[in-house]
């Protein structure tokens, strides 16, 4: 199903391209451009060992959306290394509400950055996708600049790489 060496990256680009181009037969909420989908794809896959389970949905658009949300969650530092059925259900709810994938990704990145770069003792791991729901609501009301999210991703990348190395998995590298 997934090639552990290089097929994952091609699959990610294909999935995100389908989500970004609903006119090609796959509907999806949000307005994700192909270039932003490619920029984000590098961070969307965690280690091969911790790939989330399928969403169980017959609709490929829902399945791809859920996969992208869970992969982003697994990639982020300070989050769990596995997902649960509750995480998949939360991602499905986001899809049904029509929350754009870029906004969900931005909310996750912003929330993890807030936790990671704050002063004080480190906080425990985020154990569920549901943790990010208040930040999703915040960004729906007050969207943040995509350049700022990219900056935060660059700041989090070394920590995400360390998480991947610690779990013994290989992580996809960025294309740009």
Explain what this protein looks like in three dimensions.
The structure is a single chain. With 176 residues, the protein is mainly α. The protein has one domain (7-166). 56% of the residues lie in helices and 0% in strands. The chain is built from seven helices and no strands. It has helices spanning 7-20, 34-41, 60-75, 85-97, 101-116, 133-141, 146-167. It is globular. The model is unreliable at 1-9, 22-52 and 171-176 (pLDDT under 50).
Write a brief caption for the model.
This protein has 176 residues and is an all-alpha fold. It has one domain.
Shape by Cα distribution: globular
Task: Output the helix-strand order.
Answer: HHHHHHH
User: What percentage of the residues does DSSP assign to strands (E)?
Assistant: under 5%
Biggest sheet statistics: none
Cα distance, first to last residue?
Answer: 26 Å
**What is the β-strand count?**
0
The tally of structural domains comes to 1
The helix tally amounts to: 7
- Structural class assignment: mainly alpha
Radius of gyration: 15 Å
Mean pLDDT: 76
Low-confidence stretches: 1-9, 22-52, 171-176
Query: Helix fraction?
Result: 55-70%
List the helices and strands and how they pair.
Layout: H1 7-20, H2 34-41, H3 60-75, H4 85-97, H5 101-116, H6 133-141, H7 146-167
Task: Provide tags for this entry.
mainly alpha
